[in-house]
# Entry
Amino acid sequence: MSSHLVVGTAGHIDHGKTTLVRALTGVDLDTLPEERARGITIALGFTHLDLGGDRTLSFVDVPGHERLVRTMIAGATGLDAVLLCVSAVEGVMPQTREHLDILRLLGVRQGLCVLTMADLVDEEMLALATMDVEEAVAGSFLDGAPILAVAVPPDGAPPRGLDALRAALATLAPAERSATGPFRLPIDRAFVRRGFGTVVTGTLRSGELRDGDEVEVLPDGIRTRVRGLQVHGHPVAASQAGQRTAVNLAGVERDDLARGQVLVHPGRIEPASVIDCRVHHLPGAPALPDGARVRLLSGTAEVMAALSVIDGEALAPGQDHLVQLRTEAPLVLLPGDRLVLRRESPVETLGGGEVLDPWAPRARRRDHARVAAELRALLAGDRSVLLSRAGDTGLSPARAALLGVTGGAPLGDRLVHPDRVAWLQARLGEALDTWHRERPLTPGAPRRDLRRGPLAHLDDRAFDALVALAAARGELVLEGPVLRRPTWRIQPTAAQQAVLDGLRAEVAAGGLDGVSAGALLAREPDAFMLLVARGDLVRMGDRVVDGALLQPLLAQVRAWFDAHAAMSPTEFKDLSGLSRRMAIPLLEWLDASGLTSRQGDQRVAGPALRRA
# Structure
């Protein structure tokens, strides 16, 4: 059983919400001078009620005035239950119905109905007010909920009905909140407290926050540190999901903070601007065409957004729709979060619903049928849709966890849909087969040369992981930087062999002076490199020599070192009969081959020559 339950008041202006909370808790939440002067709640108010045992109720008192619905939504987001307050004198009023609509849209699932000011009416009027409430809540989550009459006389007379209300509050179901999810605290207030500095308050949506934690203020990206926590006015070492929390922040100015921002642990969540949702358009709302601008309210944030109707041409009154919202400013959202849509002008509640994909790819009109099918599959529980949407880039493990995605295939540091990995592997195989077909005199393809076409967009880690996966499955062989099919062998055709023979004869004709390597490479690159790889041709700087012609020279070098301890460049020129232009590259080749070793201006026998 949860030790904390967040309960909000809702209802029309002047229907006794704040008075009821004061009677239950002893705390007057109308603290602003303007609130006291006007007798209405303007800002959100918070207090708590200890029910005994491990049950504590956090009360959120929200304003009822029609101009303050935005504040009401900020307070109602994250509620576990609601007290729908209706004056027994006036009965159900317009804001009562709008608040009830909003609570439905925000996914509130339980609560109680309270008839306030019951001392101001007779039994007949009280019965009529009760029937009025029953009719208003019919078909909603409050259908069948207790309707409790309460009186808090202003003259100090004893209140009536509070014991029954407390008993009913104790029967509310415990909240189901994620203690393991990412920490999120939507900010509903920010202020400076003397002796402490900047403080923000909110209700933890999920996760846990500990004193000393590093945190980030999104969407602004402000990094800061927690230097004090309070829950219901008491210092604590940690705050958990569902608790009303005050957070003292280090090194951040009050002017940098505002309602609508969200505290998170750094790097865990990215703000979203393209959001796929399922929404319910209220029966009394006007039809809303595709492309309309709306006010989007979620958590404590409000932004303007462009509406794209995925499954139709317009939002129809009383209907559920799949939509994409493109916001003018980023929001901090996760799948399952609730939102409310209000008209731009005149301001009225249109509908709302739940977030399906907060980091959706932008859907163009020609894609609507496909996107609608994806969202319906997502609603049916197929989370792999989100992997498919991520394409070859895939999802980071952290993003996959936020989206509830499992079963992705690792590719580098990302998770990619297995079908997409199979597709990429097929493209890699096709690219390698094409290489073998078009360049049959090469031992294989340099791996980077295959990262083209449909594979060009993969980063190094993803491409290397794709190659390693194909190698592990026996679909290709890795030989240093070269890839080949396991069965691939160089088998020159008669025409290709003629090219090879012609190149070798041309080089042999150049003797130990060789010929230009660049010219041959430009003319017949694959044949040239094959002959070099086989040792038939030997490159020496910008020249190339027939390997067979070097054997007599090597015999001369061995004989020299049988009789001498060292050899100078001049002695090598005399021995080989070569000019300095070719003698120096030959000496450098002997050094690189380990046949000789340079010591100052002299050469001595190298390890390879001594082993021969």
Summary: Residues 29-43, 64-68 have pLDDT under 50 and may be disordered. Residues 296 and 341 are 5 Å apart (CA to CA).
